[in-house]
Specification:
alpha/beta, Alpha/beta knot, Trp Operon Repressor, Chain A, 2 domains, five-stranded parallel beta sheet, two-stranded antiparallel sheet, 8 helices, 9 strands, 19% strand
Amino acid sequence: MRIDILTILPDLLQGPFSDSIMKRAQTKGHLELEIHNIRDYSTDKHNKIDDYQYGGGAGMVMSIEPIAAIIEKLKAERDYDEIIYMTPDGELLEQAICNDLSLCKNMIILCGHYKGVDERVREHYITKEVSIGSYVLSGGELGAAVLVDSVVRLIPGVLNDETSALTDSFQDRLLSPPVYTRPSEYRGWKVPEVLLSGDFPKIEAWREKKAFERTQVRRPDLLD
């Protein structure tokens, strides 16, 4: 998968992709990640990429020209399955969206800033708008990092155990059940006997029951 991220703060995105699973995904060749500085496509002598909004009001707006220039350049080089805009008023990111996006070959992610981008960018270039929650961040970079991480880990070969992602929370609209490891007893706190029994049908039934109970208490909306 190739992902191109468009941002005015490229340094902010170096950390999330330089360690752990995201680094291994790139090393193994499962992820080709390119981070583009939108300012490089500005025609302004000061590399300005924003301006006052028509009609007045507080806050600047990201201009269409540099964003259009970089998107059109990238689209001339390859076909993109999605051009995604990270925005608070986008579709709330859920596991089903991550599953769908993990099947893409190429995608562009645009990180918003200030009061957002000129609406014509959204109307003529963006194919999908995504929000990671009902709150506002200083920019779309952190949201983009969350989106990339949640998608790339689903690509076959990225995780050491590919079945791990299939048992994550939300994959079957249930939260994951409790998990335990050694020692089997600590300060009198014991691991449930069924997990030590070696009876895998009983273990699976216990996990399904606990997953349902946890979801019912913590996220009953998922059961709707």
